[in-house]
Amino acid sequence: MNLLERPTEDVPPSTSCALFTDIPADTAAAPTATTLIASALPIVAGGLAGLLARFSHVAVVGCVHTRADAINAIAAQRPRVVIIDHDMLDSRGAAMASLVAAGPSTAVLVLGKDEPVSAIARVLSHGAAGYVTTRQPVEELAAAIAAVAEGGRSIPVDLLDSMLEHLARPSRHDLSDRQLQIVRLLAAGTCTAAIAEVMGLSVGTLRNQVRGILVRLGAHSRLEAVAIARQCGMLGHTTVVAGDDGGAS
User: Fold this and answer.
1) pLDDT digits (tens, 9 = 90+) for 16-73
2) Vertex 186, ends 231 and 174: CA angle to 5°?
3) How many CB atoms lie within 10 A of CB 64?
4) Contacting residues for 200 by C-beta, under 8 A, at least 6 apart
5) Where in 114-199 does DSSP place strands (E)?
6) FRET partner for 28 with CA separation of 20 to 30 A, picked from 38, 55, 137, 166?
7) Alpha carbon distances (Å) from 212 to 94, 100, 185, 216, 219
8) Whose CA is closest to 108, among 86, 87, 90?
9) 3-state secondary structure 210-243
């Protein structure tokens, strides 16, 4: 049974869930976790509240349907956990920052559908304590609540491999703004002298910058650096133009 299905009979909490948590998922022994549910869809919030009523360690203290109401409710009620729909967050982390600021002791558990791994990694980096999907059984949601309420983290175990692979890739945050601009100019086929002029650097300094870029991206040539940058989403819609592949020269 997934989170969008209502059970036909009362089922005891599961203690063996398909989750990766750093807190044991022994929900029977877990202390009561006051929980706020935030979803723009009242039927989803109400359905989750009904499903979670079966678990003695979860006490739903309310349902809200806007981000502003979630922030106000966290500040007023100080729940141990807030479950928030991924669609209520933004990609820059401003919404997550507001939630965390409203209740520093409240763990944020994000409820998503089939978001890409990059989006899941993003919300975790912004401060979420865990992530669950609507295709998971409610027992796994209950175990995730117990984990994050005690200061742990929780993500679906079937996402672990792809999450670790994603985290192992270079990201735009591995490069400075100047280095990122240089990579984009390289991708556009701009020659060394022209890049140096655009960046206001000497050719020697530019070559040192390029060497640093190669090291950070684990590349052996400019073309390889551009290919890695494109694969990792650093270049946007920049067109890669074949040119000099003379390493860092």
Assistant:
1) 344 555 544 455 556 789 999 999 999 999 999 999 999 999 999 999 999 999 999 9
2) 50
3) 22
4) none
5) 130-133, 154-156
6) 38
7) 31, 35, 16, 6, 10
8) 86
9) HHHHHHHHCCCCHHHHHHHHHHCCCCCCCCCCCC
Residue 219's nearest CA partner among 234, 200, 205, 236 is: 234
3 state SS of 93: coil
244 sits in the region (left: phi over 0; alpha: psi -120 to 50; else beta) called beta
| Tokens standing for residue 174 | 């591995």
Q: Hunting for tokens 């989403």 — which residue is that?
A: 233
DSSP H helix total and E strand total for the chain? 10, 7
Amino acid at site 208: N
Separation between Cα atoms, residue 153 and residue 150, nearest integer Å: 9
The two tokens of residue 10 are 């009362």
Of 156, 152, 201, 199, nearest to 180 by C-alpha is 199
